[in-house]
Amino acid sequence: MTDADRTIRTDGVTLDPDALPQGDDKREAVRSLFDTIAPRYDIVNRIMTFGLDVRWRRKAMKKLGLPPGSRILDLACGTGDFCRESHRSGLVPIGVDLSMGMLAAARTEAPLVHGDILQLPFGPATADGATCGFALRNLVELPGFFDELARVIRPGGRISLLDAAEPNNPILRFGHGIYFGKIVPLIGGLLSNRTAYQYLPKSLAYMPPWPEMQSRLAAAGFHNIERKVFVGAHLITATRQSVPNSAR
Length: 248
Description:
Blueprint: E1 8-10, E2 13-15, H1 23-37, H2 41-48, H3 52-64, E3 71-75, H4 81-88, E4 92-97, H5 100-104, E5 112-114, E6 127-133, H6 142-152, E7 153-164, H7 170-191, H8 194-202, H9 210-220, E8 222-229, E9 233-240
Parallel strand pairs: 3-4, 3-6, 4-5, 6-7
Antiparallel strand pairs: 1-2, 7-9, 8-9
């Protein structure tokens, strides 16, 4: 394998699976990565999670707990998995994604918007809730994203954020490290792009410790913050406060 085979380039930005880009370089590298893997993204996800990603999304929708007719923003919507789950729950989703490749591969009837979820093109308190699947570690920053969630979600609205995570159990964590770090890149290389699936396991290093994430969500204006850890993923849910922290 040559050096050229190990990198993805876009607009002069190179994604090296052995490095973790920051700032604008990260944004452009992530955009290119998902443009590249979009055509086979769903099938790789189903295989490498043994279909558990479908079950996790359904649990995320159940924990969202919003009534039919609620307007939901599916942020970093990808191919529209959460949009489809929202429709099944009687909700009204709008998808937003940075990658045009993912939007082009989307399988949903929901309206789709090309954009950066750190700068959402929606007014204050215009949504009843939001979902986000497997994208937190790909953002340039989390505090700004949490602030943006608080801005666009009405008081009393809900968020349900799903992402990859290491299990709490030490034995499971050891096995997960081998599978996610060694086997997943092999599966990705056979079915899609090896470089991308070498990078994605390493991107877990971007995630801050849970207490810090919890504190950041509270500072942004959320309460009833809960976290459920699965084998290979975690689900974060919270409610938008009716009264901002500054007014308390």
